[in-house]
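I had to read the description of the data format several times before I understood it. For illustration, here is how one protein appears when written out as sequence plus structure tokens:
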Amino acid sequence: MAKRVSVDGWLFTVTLLLVFIGLVMVFSASAVMAKERYGSGYFFLLRQLGWAAAGLIAMVAAMKIDYRRYKHPAVVFTLLGITTLMLISVFFLDRSHNTHRWIHLAGFSFQPSEMAKPALILFLAYFLADKTKAITDWRSTILPAALPTLVFIGLIVFQPDLGTAIACAAITVCVLFVAGMDMRYLGYAFLASLLPLYFLIWHVAYRRARILAFLNPYADPQGKGFHIIQSLIAVSTGGVLGLGLMEGKQKLFYLPEPHTDFIFAVTAEELGLLGSLTVVLLFSIFLWRGIRTAVKTRENFGRFLAVGITSMVVVQAFINMSVVLGLMPTKGIPLPFISYGGSSLFMTLACVGVLLNVSKQAE
């Protein structure tokens, strides 16, 4: 059978549409706040536009590079090593927003945790590509495969950033599942994580407050439950057609970080149910085409890359939208392609470029 000579048009188009929607919504959500804080309503838009341009260039470049070139220990372990060093280095830098998540350089900020996800995907695809027949051996396969994930999760949790750590764990589970891991090991891992999660959530004041606010936000509507309530107000007031672009009210210093974590709430308020469902539909198409690419790729390395990248995007989108709709406790997970955040947008687009190359060479 002849190989396809072009990338997946659906996947490419959906990605461009999501980036475009993201630029529009970042401007709408941030213009008033940017004018108040920085003297220009275009402050966040211009920065996001620059990262989007760089990300699209990286996507096109990655789209043209044979993904099999990444299947080399020098590439895999160099990326793992650099990511580990960057995750450690943030602890020696100044805190930002009471966290050690950022590296600031020449006026730009970068989150090393955003590199952790593609680094893990590449390692898992490389390590598991020739080990599917030994996937039931937990000593020689499952444990070594999960070790980098455990190291990254530990470093990310202490930044602290539990949401990204959970996303890394979810990506690893998806790849291991497709590789054929026995589900009982997933059960063992879940049971083993219960005690650490209990201490990380219930014995950390702000996380415990988030859980309590999630369970009953109206118990403290002006305090712990304020963010969730404002998000639900934004979603509910949008109606079917929305209030209109730039016409939302909740972004006016009611919603926390309306251009990042809660940008989907602004989308629901201004573009309504139809606009929100359009975003959900686009991510659903992304999931469909990503799975289709994985199924059609006969080589394990490419299949695991496709599964990892697809799950990275879709898991984060699911978590973000669930938080906005009050279905999950508040987490600092951006909405891929749409939320403001340069490092997230750039790394996601670069990874999509790899996925597009896999789709191009799938038989």
